Amino acid sequence: MALPHILLSELEKKSQTGYDISCILIRTPHGRYWRASHQQIYRDLNKMLENKLVTVRLVPQVGKPDRKIYSITKLGRVELSEWLSSPPELPTFRDEMASRIMAAKGEDIPGLIESLLEMENECEKYLDVVTENRKMIDEADISKFEKTKFKIMFNRAEEHWLSFYNWSVETRQLLVL
């Protein structure tokens, strides 16, 4: 399961709150490839706490609940290392648009075509973001390995969004026939 491991990888960098991690996931490439709600993050942090993969330190606040600062444990580092060296599971294929097409009737075609056009526009926006991120990383003062990791992620993202875009265009053309 990837989310706990993504959380461990962020905690390996530094101790932080669940809120801090959720902000990082939104602002970094992780957020483009793995979406998680605040509830999922806190649920997994609590499970990892029970499994001794993380510890928590309470920081009192005036007029607010205590802040919970999570840190990775030695056991958490072992878990993360084992996950990084194990073969990944193939992703589950779930495609809402394909499901809509399979559920549609002939009179639904105009709405499907409109939805496909909207998806193509969204794909173009994501591809623009990938291009912007590539430029930003090229200029960033980070190690060669960090740049390589980002390049790999951006290549994957570009491939994903181009594939989805091309599938949408082809599907629209087939529906028009």
Write the layout of secondary structure elements.
Layout: H1 2-13, H2 18-27, H3 29-33, H4 38-50, E1 54-61, E2 64-72, H5 74-85, H6 96-103, H7 109-139, H8 144-176
Antiparallel strand pairs: 1-2
Helix pairs in contact: 1-5, 2-4, 7-8
Description of the molecule:
- This protein is mainly α.
- The protein has 2 domains: 2-85, Orthogonal Bundle (Arc Repressor Mutant, subunit A), CATH 1.10.10; 96-176.
- Helices cover 70% and strands 10% of the residues.
- The chain has helices at residues 2-13, 18-27, 29-33, 38-50, 74-85, 96-103, 109-139, 144-176, and strands at 54-61, 64-72.
- It has a two-stranded antiparallel ribbon with strand order 1-2.
- A hairpin with a 2-residue loop joins strand 1 (54-61) and strand 2.
- It starts with a helix and ends with a helix.
- The model has no long low-confidence stretch (mean pLDDT 91).
Structural class: mainly alpha
Strand elements, count: 2
Parts with pLDDT < 50 across at least 5 consecutive residues: none
- Gross morphology is elongated
Tell me the CATH superfamily of the largest domain: Winged helix-like DNA-binding domain superfamily/Winged helix DNA-binding domain
Query: What percentage of amino acids are in beta strands?
Result: 5-15%
Query: Radius of gyration from the CA trace?
Result: 20 Å
Instruction: Give me the strand/helix succession.
Output: HHHHEEHHHH
Main β sheet profile: 2 strands, antiparallel
Write out the strand line-up for the largest beta sheet, numbering strands in chain order.
Answer: 1-2
CATH topology of the largest domain: Arc Repressor Mutant, subunit A
Query: In the CATH hierarchy, what is the class of the largest domain?
Result: Mainly Alpha
Q: How many domains in all? A: 2
What is the percent of helical residues?
over 70%
Tally of individual helices: 8
Gap from first CA to last CA: 42 Å
Average per-residue pLDDT, rounded, comes to 91
